Each structure stands twice: as C-alpha cells, then as structure tokens.
Amino acid sequence: MSIRDAVSVADPAEVGSAMHELMAELYPICRSITGEGFRTTLSTLAKHVDLDVHEVPSGTQVFDWTVPREWNIRDAYVANSHGERVIDFRDSNLHVVNYSVPVDAHMPLTELREHLHTLPDQPDWIPYRTSYYAEDWGLCLSHRQLEALPEGNYHVVIDSSLTEGHLTLGECLIEGESTDEVLISCHACHPSLCNDNLSGVVLATFLAKALADASPRYSYRFLFIPGTIGAITWLAHNEDKVDRIKAGLVLTCVGDSGGFTYKRSRRGDAAIDRAMAYTLATSDSPYEIVDFSPYGYDERQFCSPGFNLPVGSLNRTPYARFPEYHTSADNLDFVRPEHLAGSYSLTLAALRVLEEDNTFLNLSSKGEPQLGKRGLYGSLGGGSETERSQMALLWVLNLSDGQHSLLDVAERSGLPFELLVDAADALLDAGLLAPA
Amino acid sequence: MSIRDAVSVADPAEVGSAMHELMAELYPICRSITGEGFRTTLSTLAKHVDLDVHEVPSGTQVFDWTVPREWNIRDAYVANSHGERVIDFRDSNLHVVNYSVPVDAHMPLTELREHLHTLPDQPDWIPYRTSYYAEDWGLCLSHRQLEALPEGNYHVVIDSSLTEGHLTLGECLIEGESTDEVLISCHACHPSLCNDNLSGVVLATFLAKALADASPRYSYRFLFIPGTIGAITWLAHNEDKVDRIKAGLVLTCVGDSGGFTYKRSRRGDAAIDRAMAYTLATSDSPYEIVDFSPYGYDERQFCSPGFNLPVGSLNRTPYARFPEYHTSADNLDFVRPEHLAGSYSLTLAALRVLEEDNTFLNLSSKGEPQLGKRGLYGSLGGGSETERSQMALLWVLNLSDGQHSLLDVAERSGLPFELLVDAADALLDAGLLAPA
Amino acid sequence: MSIRDAVSVADPAEVGSAMHELMAELYPICRSITGEGFRTTLSTLAKHVDLDVHEVPSGTQVFDWTVPREWNIRDAYVANSHGERVIDFRDSNLHVVNYSVPVDAHMPLTELREHLHTLPDQPDWIPYRTSYYAEDWGLCLSHRQLEALPEGNYHVVIDSSLTEGHLTLGECLIEGESTDEVLISCHACHPSLCNDNLSGVVLATFLAKALADASPRYSYRFLFIPGTIGAITWLAHNEDKVDRIKAGLVLTCVGDSGGFTYKRSRRGDAAIDRAMAYTLATSDSPYEIVDFSPYGYDERQFCSPGFNLPVGSLNRTPYARFPEYHTSADNLDFVRPEHLAGSYSLTLAALRVLEEDNTFLNLSSKGEPQLGKRGLYGSLGGGSETERSQMALLWVLNLSDGQHSLLDVAERSGLPFELLVDAADALLDAGLLAPA
What we know:
Low-confidence stretches of chain A: 379-385
Number of helices of chain A: 13
Oligomer: homotrimer
Largest sheet of chain A: 8 strands, mixed
Mean pLDDT of chain A: 95
Strand content of chain A: 15-25%
Shape of chain A: elongated
C-alpha cells in the first residue's frame, strides 16, 4: 500500500474511533516530563508502533540544560479534620501541581490557600499547573471546591519523589527508500489533558501505523517526548542526524472542533510549508496559516537558530486560544473522533504531497512532443474544450526544465497536484520525462 | 520614416479598411496545414510584403514530429438520390473535415450520420473540424441542414488527395540596424475563418509593410506558417537563429470587438512583456494581461522549455471564448476594420517602446548638472509648479546609472515613455548622457 | 545623557518654544545663497552649536557648476513722485527679487509693471522670487498694493551688489564612537520664510544641541547651507568623506500643522528609510511615506547617481503643497512651537532607532537556552499568557543568527523596538548574546 492508497483507503470514521479509543486508554495516566507515567504511555503506544525507548540519566548536560531529577507520584490528598479527603489525586491527577516535592503536613486553610490554584472564571474546572524547574508544591482544584472548604486545619499529603533517575524518550523510525527524513514530533508529558497533548500523540501514532505499511520514499522519524527538555535532549544526542531532516511537523491540539492552524517553519518557505499550504488550500476545511514565532511547542527547539530545521507545526485551535486549554475540561469529550480523523486525513494528504513531489526533465523539450502518436492526446480537432488531464500533460512538459517541481506546476497551473502526478507518470512511461 | 512616425502617421481608418480588404481576398481560399490553399495564401501576401517561401518535404523529421503528407481538395459534396447536392463544398470550405481522405461512396443517412458534424446549440452555423494526424473523413453542416435531410440513400464524394508533397512556410525578414530580432508569427492554416486566423495574418502583413519603411533598430522576422507543425518545423530548421530573437509576438484573434488580452511569455518578465504591459496600461482600450500557459497558439512551441523564447501572444477575445470560434460565423462580418486598425496601432506602439527603450549613463552624475546654463531648464525661480518635461530631464539623469532603461524610468516616475525618450535625446545632444 | 535619555527627557513644550524663539531671531535677516545675510544666520546659530564656517570663492568650479558672485543688499524701494516709498524693502525683504542687480531709475508705472510680481489669487500676500543665475531685477508686492498704485512716474532703487566674494557653508560635526556618519542637512538661503527654510534650520540646530550631549554611537554632521549650489559645493569639496555617510536626512517644512511626509532615499531600503518607517508607524502622528523622486530639496544632490547616498527627506507638508509656500504668509504664525517640537521628537526617535539597531549572535543557539535558571523567565507553569518582555527575549534569541538586526526582529515580531533593545541588553549581560 502506497501513501496514496493510505490516503484514499482509510475510513475516516474508523480511524477517528480508533484514535479516540487509544486516547481514552492513555487519558488516566499521570504523565510528567519524567517518570513512570511517561514510561507507561510509551509502553501503551508500543502496542501500535515499533518504538525505541531511550533513557537519559538525570544530571546529563544537554546544551544549556540539565536533565532534571525523575519525578514520580503515588498519591496526594488534602484531608479535613475528620480525615475525609477533600482534594484527592485519585479523582484527577490534575489536583497535584506537576513536579511537586513531597509534603506531609498539617496546616490551617489560611496557610494552605497559598498552595492552592483555582480558576475563578471557570469555577467548575481544575487548572493544570507545573513546577518543573523550581522546587515547590501545590494543589489544584475547582473554584467551587475551594469555596466549599470550611476554615479549619487540614492534612496535606503529597506522596511524590524527586530522585536521580532518567528522562525517557520514545522514537519510532520508519525506513523509506531514502535516508532523508521527515520528523514528526509530539509532546507526551501532560497528564489527563486530551487536546493538548494526547490528540497529537494519537495522531502521530496512527500516522506511524499508516506509514509503516506504505513503503514511503522518505524515512519517517516519530518522536514521543516530553516538551522542551525532551526536544533539547533529543537534539543534543542526535546532532549528527539532523542534516537528514528535510521536513517536519510538531503535532498537538489536533482534536478540537476548530479549523486548522498551520504555523510555518522559521524558514517560511520549506517544502513542508509549501506542502501544508497547498493541502490546506485544496481541502474543504477552514484554516489559517501563520508565520513562525518562537513560542508554542517544540518547533521552538527544532527551529532554534543553531538548527533552523524545516519543521512547522499543525494545530486546530492553537494553545491558549480555547478556554479548556490546560484545565480539566480538556477531556475526552472535548476531543471528538471526527476531528482526530480530519487531522489524520489532512496530515497524510500533506505528507503525500511531500512524497510525490518531484522535479523532472522534459526529454523532448524543443517544441511540444507529439502526444497524439503516443495515445496521450485526444483528437482535439477543432473542438474548443481541452480536458484538464491534457492540460496537465502540457503543463508538466512545459515546466519540466529541472527548475520546477510538480508542486510548482500545481501552483502555477491551478491544476490539482494529483492530476500532475498522474501526468508525470504517463510521461515517464512514454519516455518523455526523466527525473531531474 | 521612423517607427515613431509610422505610429503617428498611419490613418487608422485607412489601415483598417485595407486590412479588411486583404482579409476578404484571402477568405474564400481553402487553407490547410499543407497544400495549394496555403501556397495561394502566401502568393497573395507576397503582393504586399517581400516573402521567402520554404517547402519542406513530407516525411521530414522535425524534432518529435514528422512533416505529414500534403492534402489537397478539388471538390466535395453529398448528393441525394436525385443527384442534388445537399452538402456542397463550393458553398463553404468548412463543409469538409480538413484533411479528410478521399471518399466516393453511397450509403444510407443512418451510416452517413456518423461522419456528419453539427452544432445543435448554434443550429445555423457550420462547425470547423480537422483530422490532421488520424486518417478519417467527415462533413460539417448546420444543424438545421441536418434536420432537413430525409432518410434515404446518399452519394458522398470527397475529391481530395493525401500524397507525398511539402509543408510550406512563408517568411519575411526586415533587416534593421541590429541583427537582434523581433519575431512576429501567425498561423495561416485555417480555411474560411476570419478572427482565428486571418486577422492575425493581415495584422502581421501590415506591420511588416510599416516596418519595411521604418528603418527599425531591430530586425523583424515575420512567419506565416501552419499552426503547431509549422512552428516546430521552422524551429527545427532554424535552431542556429533563435538566439537572435530578443522579443516576439504570436498574433491571432485580433479583429473582434473585445478588449485586448496579452499573454505573457513563459519568462514572464521579458522585454516584450514589459513593453506590452506599458503600452496597454497607457492605452485607452480595456485589456487583460494573463500569465503564460502551455495551451493556445504557437507560443506553445516558441516557449517550450528547450527554447523558452521571449515570445508573448496578443489577442482580443482569446480562442474558444467567443461563440463564433471555429464556426462559419467567424466571418468577414465578425471582424471589423476598426478593430483590426486598433490592434495595428497598439502593436506598433508596443514595438515602438521596444525600439526606443535604451539604457544610458549620466556623464555628470555627481550632483545635478546645471541644466539652466544649457537652456534645458526654465527659470524656476520661486514658482511652485515644475513642468513635466523638466521632471523628465531630472528623472532620466537620476536613473541613468546604467541599471535603468527608459521604460524603468517610465514605470518609476509615472511619466510618459515618449516624454522620457525626448528628454534622453535632449540630454544626449547636450553631452550629458551616453549609451550605457 | 544617552540618545535614549535625550528622547525621553526633553520637555516638548520647552523645546518647541526655544526653537520658535530662535526662528524669530533669524526671521528678519535677508538671506540669500551668498552674502552677509547667510553669514549673520550662521553666527546666530553658532551661539547654540559648535559651527565651522567655510568660505568658497566666487568662480570656483564645483562639478558642473560655478560658485556665483556674492550678492548683498542694503536697501530697496519704489518711491512715488512725492518721494514716498510705496514699496519698501525695510517692510519685508521679500519685496526684492533675490539676487536682483542694482537699479536706480525713474520710469512710468507701465514700464515698472514688467518688474513687479504679485499673487492675484492671494491678494494680501507678497510672493518670494529669485533670479540667481540670470541677471535681472524685480520687486514683489501684494496684489492689493499693486492695484492701489496710481499711474505716474516712480523712482526705483535697488541698492544691491553682485561682486566676486564667497559662498558660505556652515558645518557642525558631533563626533560619536564611530567615524561612520549621519548627515543632517538643511538649506538656510531663504529670507523671511519660516516653514520653508527656518523650521529645518532650527530643527537641525536643536538636534545638534541634543546630540552634542548624548555621546552618540555615530558621528553626526550637520550642514547649514544654501540650497542646490551649497550641497553641490559641499559634495565637491568632501568627496573623500561621503563614504562615511551611513544615513542622512534633509530637513525642511517641519513646522506647519500637517502630518509627516517622509521621502525615501533613492535606494529605498536604506537604514534611515527603515528607521523612519518604523518610527512613523509606531508614532501617533498621521504620516505618508513616498518614494524618492529627483525633485524637492538637497536630497536631489545627495541622491544623484554618482553619490546615491542613503539620505531621505523629512517634511510635514511638502513644498508647494501649502498655499503659504514661498509667500509672506509663511511667517512666524504659520509655524507653531508644538509642531516644531513634534518634529524634534520624531526625528530623535528615528535617530535613536538608528543608534540602537544592532545585529547579534545567539551564543546558545542550539535549542533555547534555559532562561529560568538565569532569572530571565517567569515561572510560566501552565499559565496561558506570556509577557511581551519574555517574548522579546525569545524573539531576539531566535533571530540573532547574524542576519537579523533588532529592527528586523521588531518588524517580524510586532514587538516594540525599545523592548527588544532591552531584551538584547539583558541577554548580553547574561552572556547569551554577542555583537555579530
């Protein structure tokens, strides 16, 4: 099955359901940038794709950063004077500030309040908070929950550990005809948050599944990594490989109901930027294309000036533009199978453009070749309308001077890329074209 | 008489009438891509311009093509059982599918119908059909004529011949000061069709007449050739000459009442593209400028990637955009003298821009030269309005750094090209400018 | 005091008043392109700035021009038959056509009229007229004044002299850290005319005062010169210095109530063009940016093709666009202190952009450096809003590849230039950035 077949064969409803199912399996796990939650996530993904897992020791220097201590958590709660849990990690892993140091203390509500985080504007939602690089602890809860807490003494327990351990990276390489690579990266370090991060994780997983069966031209490297530190660690340990990366995408927030947002690579005119722009423009979805900016997800690292990789980023609604962002409302209901499926189809279609884009040389470039004697041309006679497929042949011949790829031809002619690929195939078969 | 004089002297009404008259003389001839009709057309043109006629034998290989057998026709008709001609080549040469093989057969209407072509949507018009490269025969008629035919037996006669012979090319070279050439090409292979092809033929003829008297700077090569195979044959036999071609135009459909359509060369920014754009923008006519596409007329061949010549194409209403296209309604009434005259004036004006565009060096480039002491500058004193002719002097001086031609100056300054030519002449006379 | 302090410290109302006061002191002087009036003007300015005065003898060849004879005038009038002065130079120095040759003659009004200039459309205003390079004489008066003159004989006296003397140039050099120069030029050759020329003269003077205290990075060269011949003379005598000029501005018509008009240098994309565009776009003033054209003020000379210096021109309402232009109505009331102050602030702000624009190299360019451990980054945690100052750090880091200056970063990021300068300072202090 070629990538072309993968695009057309996949039943969107089926794929969407399967992606959502995997997401539901991953949802309860308490992930962080290190620790068992992250490992469990990778072992779940490994049931779907061929995954290499790398463990990097705490304290390892990676460029300007140091791999942090490993964080693990067993339990956490706040109990009232009756010993009843009024905030309970077992209800939602968002209740604990991620990377909280261990605590076992009694304190009055007034003192406890300084460690409690709520969203007064969204009184039913629990916020998501982290404290990766500053030693601290805290608990998150809904504002309504906070308001219901009577004054009094509370027992706070965070049964976590911060120890020398490892940072864990998941990597799946699908070897194609070429050693040139397409990088697909997603962060998998957020706990029970669906759009911001699990939607990207399941999309990457299902893309990897499709490509593993598609005998692609490029090799595809999928990264399932913790945000920021994971990307920096991977780059630091793979500097010798980055030259192979000819295109890339950072995927997250791809499961909500919004239109697509493609953020260009720092280069702005990389092959992936053009393939995404073409695919979005010819899709039925609403979309927006925005220029690179040095904030967002791990495109920040891949596009840092010392690398400047041709890596863009695909979202539906970008981070912080939807109210559910980084709250308990970014849950399994917020992300729908049909939106995951739409993101899957769109991304595969863009990868197909990358895969099938080629530059050719017209071997009969002086005047037009006589297509009619090769059966490539309808008997136009005096008729006035020419079929688009015949225009595709003429456009490919005319622009195949070694300077224009099929995507260039598509942009200049306004003809569908697929039609031009077919035209190029027919002309190759007829001996009228050669790879440039 | 310079080209400037040719532009201004010509009486449009007179030129338009003379062009229409020549078109009327050419109209009845049954032309095809080879044969006596094409030769008679050239000998008619030879009464107006100095024409070289080249005969290329059937079977000659020209790039990917082979010169076809020569087609000639004496008569053709369909007669009913009473021997009455119900379709008669003598009424219109469009009645025969061009390049039909000879036929002399009796058949019922049911069988004959398979060889009859009509336009149900335009029931009074005869379509124009060809079968150059597939051996076939057929007859064209109005739909009303077809509907009036009773069932019964008919006698079909096509007294044509397809024999080893020649392809004929007409060429007129007007030598200018330079061996750099401007190519003006038109196809002359359509039978009684006025806008699509005779309008281009008579426009090219009258441009050649004007330029023969104009001592032009460029040499001008006019081609009167059959479409596609003629251009390919000419290119194949003149590969050593194409480097001389610095600009070119393919002319056809220049006699209808529509605004102008200029189709850029494949390069998109050739001198002819800029000269036409400027001339159209400063004309009073409605117009449209479109990018090159590899369909249309012989610009397809001149702009094939192996040549990529700076050749654009001028039409009024382009092929297939007017209902009369390739029908008997594209006749002497459809093309009007005033539209031919307008096309003549516009094309000459654009050629004038090509001829007069030059790049200069300001010989007094440090500060402004003192124009006043040379009588080139009005005494501006404290007055507030500066004449446009003085602005023209200043603009030409300021941009004459060897990098900007007068057309660049016109585009940047918004001043008329003619005024800048005059300014450059005055500055040359004053010794302030030299050719770059 | 740095230029940054100069921008923020200056009290606009105070500066505007001081500029208008100096203008009032200069207003009565009868200036011309040579002579005592010009010298008096310079000696007045020398009370404010450190001025070098250069005298260039009449007859000196400067490129295509010759330094003219020096013109001086003591008195001029037209008296009626009763000896009463009906036109009196002592009322307004505009009454005499500038550079008028001496006259002492009696003539009837009919003959005198040929030497009288009025503005019938503005009957109360005296026009300004000159005759620098043609020997002539004349008088200017209001149209109402002319209409009131009875027929009869008049005594015309112009007590002027045209003699071998000098052309005078004023120059003020403020040495900065670098020998690279910014040129600020204004013409100071018009008599009692405020917007067109004194507004530019006082703006240049006050900029020089501010920069003299500001220890600037660039050296600043201020020219107070006669229009056209002054600029040509200065260029001819300083050809060896012009390579140092990295930016420049010609200043005039900066005191009326109109919005700003910035005219780009001939290059169109010089540092001054970008600094002015940025400063105008981020100011509150209405403005227009126009392309270079070879008419206007001394940018014509600085941007002649033999020099092509990066010199633009700043006006409020450009010459000839306000009815008061070159009339007695361009007076001390027409130019207001607040408009002078606004021009001062805007120009200083643009110079500050020039001064502070720099290109850096990110010394930790692989991945992002860890800003948090350096105290440069707020604990973002899961919060959704990032401060603009943190975005400024990220943008400067991301684009500091030696190819982008801070102004590039400002344009691409949409962040204020000042914020990016501060970010770069912080990153320099943290050792994360080095000058490129």
